[in-house]
Amino acid sequence: MSQADALRKQILDLVEEYARAAFPEKPFVPGQSSVPVSGRVFDGKDIGTLVDSSLDFWLTTGRFSDEFERRFARRFGVREARLVNSGSSANLIAVSVLTSPTLGDRQLKPGDEVISVAAGFPTTVNPILQNQAVPVFFDVELGTYNADISRLEEALSPRTRAIIFAHTLGNPFDLESVAAFAKKHNLWLIEDCCDALGSTYAGQGVGTFGDIATVSFYPAHHITMGEGGCVLTNKPALAKLIESFRDWGRDCWCAPGKDNTCGKRFEWQLGTLPCGYDHKYTYSHIGYNLKVTDMQAAVGLSQLDKLDGFIAARKKNYATLRQGLEPLQDFLLLPQATPQSDPSWFGFPIAVRPQSGLTRERVIQHLESRKIGTRLLFGCNLTRQPAYKDSAFRVVGDLKNADYVMHNVFWVGVYPGLTDAMLRYMVESLHEVTVGKCAVL
Questions:
Q1: Dihedral (C-alpha) 321, 324, 328, 331: value to the nearest 10 degrees?
Q2: Which of these, 208, 154, 198, lies nearest to 176 by C-alpha position?
């Protein structure tokens, strides 16, 4: 072992020791300790892997990124995975890829339409507008908060080219129906799986039904890199396009620090460039630089080892809340899994029934006063958000359920950092604000 290797080992041993001292487990004190909706769950191994990568001082994508992409694609059940710097960037890449002229008559062009839902997160929809296409909004179902597929045919027009739906809070949308619809009408299907890592539909992992899938590794999500995301596909031609749009729009597919992977770096003739123009500086798309650092990938690689445990904890926490809140159905509409699905829940959505005499604001204020974190269902009805006031979009139906979500729905956490004591406290607090007494679990 060289001196550098010995010092590296000593540093990493100290990191483990540091992690134990710096991040001890803290007792939960009801009313004093916070109960977050989400958060990073990490240990000394995660910090150690981060420090290990930093000692290489390889500041762009490298060995950890390569290993993560290989392992994550295998874990996800697809052929190709490409890391990007966020889940939002993953969605931007996924839609932008469809604008490539190489796709022929399936190319997404300005003015073409992409079907989505009105109640969701903005960066599922923003890439449609950013690529000068037109979002087509329709409503969601209450309880599942996923697309109301009965409106799919109504949403279709001669200019429809693609569908992008998110699996809301980890609850899969009706993949069987949507995938069949996309196939019937020759539409691209993008699955936004940012909240749904580990969810399955009919025994098959989400993200494997469509043409492209996206995932987020923000601290709130199932595993984290701090910032980070991934674009996945089973189609090598799409994987090449994903890489191009992620890496400045270049035509070359050499990894950073590599040259002449194609074996004819100075023999290409593309566009009206002179024959032999350096392939490393030939650009076939108007792209971005959305890569991750190897240090981010290192954290993700360590987190990936914990994914099965994280998924199991989310399911357990969801089941605990569902059981504890069952007696409150007259006051609260509780979430329901889509038929044939087994969600890896991101959050626990709750609708306050207007006829109960309660309001969402009253319930949320009660929970927040007890240090229990809450969130709304993202942008709720996006057509009412100020950002889209002057945007071109088409609406199918009256979006009454999206408006219901806007007024009545919120969610609480199920992430693995929540303890049984925290979950009991959440249930007791919801019983207190509804029927004025505590539940006994």
A1: -20
A2: 208
- Cα(287)–Cα(51) distance, integer angstroms: 31
Shared domain check, 217 and 199: yes
Show the domain range for 269. 255-283
Annotated catalytic residue within 221, 279, 285, 431 = 221
Flag whether the pTM goes above 0.90: yes
How far apart, in Å, do the first and last CA atoms of the chain sit? 56
Amino acid at 410: F
Q: What CATH number has the domain bearing residue 235?
A: 3.40.640.10
- Tokens 């303890």 correspond to what residue? 419
Question: What Rg, from alpha-carbon coordinates, does the chain have?
Answer: 23
d(CA 36, CA 28): 12
Is 221 considered catalytic here? yes
Residues 295 and 311 in one domain: no
Contact assessment for residue 400 and residue 139, using Cβ atoms and an 8 Å cutoff: yes
Question: Are 275 and 232 in a shared domain?
Answer: no
* Listed residue (53, 166, 188) closest to 108, CA to CA: 188
- Judgement on whether residues 108 and 198 belong to the same structural domain of the protein: yes
For residues 212 and 222, membership in a common domain is answered with yes
pLDDT digits (tens, 9 = 90+) for 2-31: 999 999 999 999 999 999 999 999 999 999
Question: Is 421 within 8 Å of 415 (Cβ atoms)?
Answer: no
pLDDT tens string 60-110? 999 999 999 999 999 999 999 999 999 999 999 999 999 999 999 999 999
